[in-house]
């Protein structure tokens, strides 16, 4: 094990109070030596997710303040904590950490939450796609396994997860109806593979889906938007249809009567990725599937933009303005 000098520090974005993007402020934070089972990594790229917006705004009260947000990143191993045998100094890794701390130049992470990044995937792509891509893989393979012949609805099909999920669905032989919030995002959704595209702010989603499916509806709706789209999701379902509500970019879905699901024997789930990567074996399996899909060309990761770590606020503004991501911070 290599040690780190006492009093070491690193640059990080700190939230002292919930609020608008300008609460994201660069600061210097203490950095202890890596503990048993931990890696010290020098971060090379940091993923930005809508979850980070919820944390910053206070919609999710899951980060103790003052605190460093950020769920994922990629970097190089610089030190090993006691007992770490799966990694070596100099290894390239990606990680996700639901205890946050990602918006920093260097950090310690549990080795169990890291995976090797293969040579065919660069650090920026790994950081941009890791959490979103694993979410897409879990949605397509575990939450509602997709197979040839299915007709599905993907909300926010031009978004970070939406584009990846659409590509996976097409690779599995599904017909994908995608929704987008504005005409400027139609081409991005079409490039991802959507067979038909609905402007959910301008069209009646349920009516349009009924038209596109000869009244049958879809087998599953993947909804990351929430409040603005949920009623359309309900209306778009076919018999025994399934709504997978995996985000709430427009706000939480208001309470509704479960009996409304009865007419179609429908179901609703609210999955979070952590339940599907809760062990090192699960994490490595899902990550391996993601990186293989990227290396094989099954998944094409289109970058929305890179920002200096100090401009995390700019990345959040663009994300909330619904500019197409994914976005990455560069320390």
TrEMBL record:
Keywords: NADP, Oxidoreductase
Organism field: Novosphingobium tardum
CDD domains associated with the record: QOR2 (cd05286)
InterPro entries according to UniProt: ADH-like_C, ADH-like_N, ER, GroES-like_sf, NAD(P)-bd_dom_sf, QOR-like, Quin_OxRdtase/zeta-crystal_CS
Designated name of the protein: Quinone oxidoreductase family protein
One of the Pfam families matching this protein, by short name: ADH_zinc_N
PANTHER family: QUINONE OXIDOREDUCTASE PIG3-RELATED (PTHR48106), QUINONE OXIDOREDUCTASE-RELATED (PTHR48106:SF13)
Enoyl reductase (ER) domain segment(s): 19-329
Cell membrane recorded as keyword: no
């Amino acid at each position: 094990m290599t040690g780190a000098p006492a009093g070491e520090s690193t640059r990080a974005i700190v939230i002292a109070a919930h609020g608008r993007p300008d609460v994201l402020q660069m600061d210097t934070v203490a950095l202890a030596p890596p503990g048993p089972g931990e890696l010290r990594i020098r971060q090379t790229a940091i993923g930005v997710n809508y979850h980070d917006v919820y944390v910053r705004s206070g919609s999710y009260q899951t980060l103790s303040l003052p605190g460093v947000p950020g769920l994922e990143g990629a970097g190089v191993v610089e030190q090993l904590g006691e007992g770490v045998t799966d990694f070596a100094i100099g290894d390239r890794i990606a990680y996700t950490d639901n205890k946050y701390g990602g918006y920093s130049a260097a950090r310690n992470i549990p080795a169990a939450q890291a995976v090797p990044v293969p040579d065919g995937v660069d650090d920026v792509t790994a950081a941009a796609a890791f959490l979103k891509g694993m979410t897409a893989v879990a949605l397509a393979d575990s939450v509602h396994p997709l197979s040839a012949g299915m007709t599905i609805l993907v909300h926010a099909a031009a978004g970070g997860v939406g584009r990846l999920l659409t590509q996976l669905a097409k690779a599995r032989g599904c017909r994908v109806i995608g929704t987008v919030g504005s005409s400027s995002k139609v081409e991005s959704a079409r490039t991802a593979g959507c067979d038909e595209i609905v402007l959910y702010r301008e069209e009646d989603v349920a009516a349009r889906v009924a038209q596109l499916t000869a009244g049958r509806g879809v087998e599953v709706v993947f909804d990351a938007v929430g409040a603005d789209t949920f009623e359309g999701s309900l209306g778009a379902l076919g018999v025994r249809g399934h709504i997978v509500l995996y985000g709430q970019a427009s706000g939480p879905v208001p309470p509704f009567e479960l009996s409304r699901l009865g007419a179609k024997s429908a179901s609703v789930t609210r999955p979070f990725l952590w339940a599907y990567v809760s062990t090192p074996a699960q994490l490595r399996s899902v990550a391996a599937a993601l990186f293989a899909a990227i290396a094989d060309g099954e998944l094409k990761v289109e970058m929305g933009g890179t920002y200096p770590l100090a401009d995390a606020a700019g990345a959040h503004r663009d994300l909330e303005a619904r500019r197409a991501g994914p976005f990455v911070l560069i320390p």
